[in-house]
Specification:
alpha/beta, Rossmann fold, seven-stranded mixed sheet, 15 helices, binds nicotinamide-adenine-dinucleotide, oxidoreductase activity, acting on the CH-OH group of donors, NAD or NADP as acceptor
């Protein structure tokens, strides 16, 4: 593991070959690392009155992944907070001496280069869930940190949620629901743009774990399924799923009635859906984005929803999170947004809590993690983040 001395010196060599400055940072980091008891900080969303309503509700600050007793019985210190932003927040107080930081994409602790630089004891950044873009991954790599997530933990949760959002948009569900709450009854106001999903062209940008599960779930709806990815699926899987590979993203997008985003947020996907790209989409396109808010240009989405070029936009990811009260996506027409929730079902929580515990156990024993969990290891970013 990156925190072993041998690996750390390999990291130092790697870093100094790229950039001589951080080598001194790494050296001091090594000196401060304590071999025994660790200070572990968890940043999770606050559940308040909901915390005690389900014994399996592990993802909140109060229940803190259910690992407090286990950690403390081994002499480790476990600080948990939801106060994560700004120079005077609770998290900031612990940055200088924490060894491990655990956070979730649902209420992410933003780990900037500045925080990494201050965190002289920090060795390990764990994401309870999937998607570690809240970490400055280059800075983490240069500092010799390990970044890992619980790969696969909530992919079913997200794929199911995406299917729901597609149907909500295609059937124009929300206006009807609002009518019921407001004591109204106006079939026409819903029906003039409610469609069947059957026969429509649905394209996923990214067909990794979530994208594939979504395509599998869409197959019985008899749609025309397309996917764009860095990597083509093996032919047998492709024919089982029944989706056609589109190597050129810009050739695929204008064919789609529904576009679903399923890539991580990386330097290549940030702002991928800007004004120019959105202008080339079919007029009336529906977009589902549970991947990351920053894959979209915020204002371009607002403008296209306002003009009706995007007829419906739904997702649970925002930039930043929590979304401020004045975030323009809250107020744009044709949206079916929610807070970031799709990957934090109770089933998902049980899986990512178990995955975090497993990685901590391995970390204490100096063992490697499952290889697919690493986002940064030994100074190197996982393939798709490079
Ligand atoms: N909303 C939620 O609760 C939630 C939960 C889990 C994951 N997510 C998001 O979904 C993302 C995908 O998760 P996953 O488990 O399917 O990941 P994955 O790694 O299995 O799949 C990602 C796919 O995207 C492809 N990809 C990466 N960069 C690309 C690019 N520039 N162009 C085309 N394809 C590219 C990869 O080749 C891969 O097939 C996560 O990174 C995370 O941001 C959101």
């Amino acid at each position: 593991m990156a925190m072993k001395r041998a690996a750390a010196s390999a990291v130092r060599a790697f870093i100094s070959s790229r950039n001589p400055a951080p080598a001194s940072v790494l050296a001091s980091r090594g000196l401060h690392a304590s071999p025994g008891s660790k200070k572990i900080v968890g940043v999770f969303y606050q559940a308040n009155e909901y915390a005690s309503m389900n014994p399996n509700f592990l993802g909140c600050a109060e229940n803190a992944l259910g690992i407090r007793e286990w950690l403390e019985s081994q002499g480790h210190q476990y600080i948990v907070t939801s106060d994560k932003d700004g120079p005077h927040c609770e998290l900031e107080k612990h940055i200088p001496d924490l060894h491990v930081l655990i956070t979730t994409p649902f209420h992410p602790a933003y780990v900037t280069a500045e925080r990494i630089n201050k965190a002289k004891n920090l060795q390990l950044l764990l994401t309870a869930g999937i998607g570690s873009d809240h970490v400055d991954l280059k800075a983490a790599a240069e500092a010799g940190l390990t970044v890992a997530e619980v790969t696969g933990s909530n992919v079913v949760s997200v794929a199911e949620d995406e299917l729901m959002r597609i149907l909500i948009l295609v059937r124009n569900f929300l206006p009807g629901h609002h009518q019921v709450i407001n004591g109204e009854w106006n079939v026409a106001a819903i029906a003039y743009r409610a469609y069947d999903l059957e026969g429509k062209t649905v394209g996923t940008v990214g067909a990794g774990r979530i994208g594939r599960l979504l395509l599998q779930r869409l197959k019985p709806f008899n749609c025309n399924l397309l996917y764009h990815d860095r990597i083509k699926m093996d032919p047998q899987l492709e024919s089982e799923i029944g989706a056609k590979f589109e190597e050129d993203l810009d050739a695929m997008l204008p064919k789609c009635d529904v576009i679903v985003i399923n890539t991580p947020l990386t330097e290549k996907t940030k702002g991928m859906f800007d004004k120019e790209r959105i202008a080339k989409l079919k007029k009336g396109v529906l977009i589902v984005n549970n991947a990351r808010g920053a894959i979209m240009d915020t204002q371009a989405v607002v403008d296209a929803c306002s003009s009706g070029h995007i007829a419906g936009y739904s997702g649970d990811v925002w930039n930043p999170q929590p979304a401020p009260k004045d975030h323009p996506w809250r107020y744009m027409p044709n949206q079916a947004m929610t807070p970031h929730v799709s990957g934090t079902t109770i089933d998902g929580q049980l899986r990512y809590a178990a995955g975090v515990k497993d990685m901590l156990e391995r970390y204490f024993k100096g063992e490697d993690f499952p290889p697919q969990n690493y986002i940064v290891k030994d100074g190197v970013l996982a393939n798709q983040y490079r």
